[in-house]
Amino acid sequence: MRSLIKHIVKRFAYSLFTIFLIATITFFLMNLVPGGPFLSEKNLSPQITEVMNDKYGLNEPVIIQYKNYMIKLAQGDLGVSIINKGRDINDIIYEKFLISAKVGFITIVLAITIGIAMGVVAAISKGKLVDRLLTIFSTLGMAVPNFVIATALLIIFGVKLRILPTYGLSSSAHFILPVLTLAFYPMAYIARLLRTTMLDVLDQDYIRTARSKGLSEFQVLVKHGLRNAITPIITYLGPMIAYILTGSFVVEKIFSIPGLGGEFIGSINGRDYPMIMGTTIFLATIMVSMNFIVDILYKVIDPRIELN
Amino acid sequence: MELQQDQEKLMHKNPFSFQLNSDDFLPAKSNEDLVREYKKTSYWNEIFHSFLKKKVALIAFVVIVFVFFLAFTIPLFYEYSYDQQIRGSENLRPFEYSEQELNLKSQGETVVPHLLGTDTLGRDVFIRVLMGTRISLIVGIVASIIVLVIGAIYGSIAGFFGGKLDLIMMRIVDVIYTVPDILIIILLSVSLREPLNVLYEKNLFFSQLEVLGPGLTSIFITFSLLYWVGMARIIRAQVVMLKEQEYIIAAKALGASNTRIITKHLLPNLIGTIIVTTTLQIPTAIFTESFLSFIGLGVAAPMPSLGSLAADAMGGINSYTYRLIAPTVAISVIILSFNLFGDGLQEVFDPKLKEKR
Asked: Which of B296, B303, B300 shows the shortest CA–CA distance to B123?
């Protein structure tokens, strides 16, 4: 228990340091770009640029700007968007993230349930046709980039068959294609991972004991098999969240979803530096804290893992 | 009978015992093979032969070679170039000819058909897909070599010397490992583009690399900054494991120098891991490049990339659906082949792995 607490504190410090590092990298990278955000609008007179730079504190030395930004960041203030007529970045992120989170949450639930089901079915029918088909499916699912899946789904269901909506998120039917696109890779990955660990577990002595005790096959598989095979899936939760967040950049662009991913790409193309920084730091914080939680969860669930 | 059993037991217990096995002294029969000849095979020969048995990986390898061949030879002699805009031939369907091309044809001249049609600017899609494939392959291989060099050197130094140096070096790796890579890659591609543009315009050395352009250069820089950590971890773990092996300890005891141990004992044992990890790095790099190009951050126009071609085709998805098919199929086939090829190599170099699966 004591070593666990020590471990938690250590991981927490690590995570904080990583977020700080990312914020620093982000800040200096954004300042590396010559010209600044008002360069793209060519018809601005030098005076106006000067006033704008003054207003947003862009005339100060970089190190002072950095200090100011970090102080504000520590208070949870990400600053003001330049392109979006001076709206608070916190507000924009909050509003857009709710939309992305909805899609992301459904994706996670779908990927985990279907992925686990596929993995178990593949493991118990090892070497049979079902197993082969599922293996082919998961190999394909892991090799095809998400924008390819998105465009394929879009062409089949949106353009050719015209049975599913492809624009926006106004009804529940609108969720189907984006969620399917995002869930494809994690589903394939979980299925493949679970098949391997499940086969390992089903070879163990306690499974034979459970069978000889006369337990039903379902009980053997779920209570004794799945429960022991599922821990590696937990480690995948962190990378999965990261995958879904970055995948949302593409998916929200393709399906015109007004979420954070699309907003991020928009802010990159519009050179909205505070917005780019804010979104990066926000997304990085989510990913890093997810990894932190998963890391702790993993140790709590499976005490056999040595704390190191 | 009992005596014989005891004798056998003894033989097994102590192979160097002076007691002789009476079976060895039976007279030979005429049909017995007295000398068994084994073919002498080198390590690489063995690897090669067991690879030939992996059918899926072999097919994947053939596909990769074929794609390479297409992407690097056809553009050399093809009628159209990837940035050539043919006026009046915009938005042609596959094998369709524009009016002026039909005129030329009726005059008896040979007009090369547009296998995949033309895009909105009148550029031949077929050659653009091939050039995009070429870019993907270059990115995949160059990026993986960068990752290999940095990761292998870093990992082997940390693993070989161990101690405090190892601790510090691996802490740095841990921190970079927790950084969400795609976000930093996006940031770097955004912020490096302008400075690199300036460099390309002014600097003589960089203008020699014009083929790459600032987009690709920033992709390579991001890869060399971030992606090597995975390789470094794998190599370090291998080196640490190998270091404890008896033959290395024996070599040390015999007074072999560090250089000798590294070149004669460590590297030959690492080579399998290095080849497999590098091969599996290629599809990741290609994947990342196409992702960046798709969201508009990869190669600079007019240079095509499979990702940017797909993004361009998204614009006309309702009327020109077929334009999406070629780049997306190409990217999927390339990534899938490299994955399957890498998996096959892994099984060949590490046969124990298959038992685990």
From this structure: B303
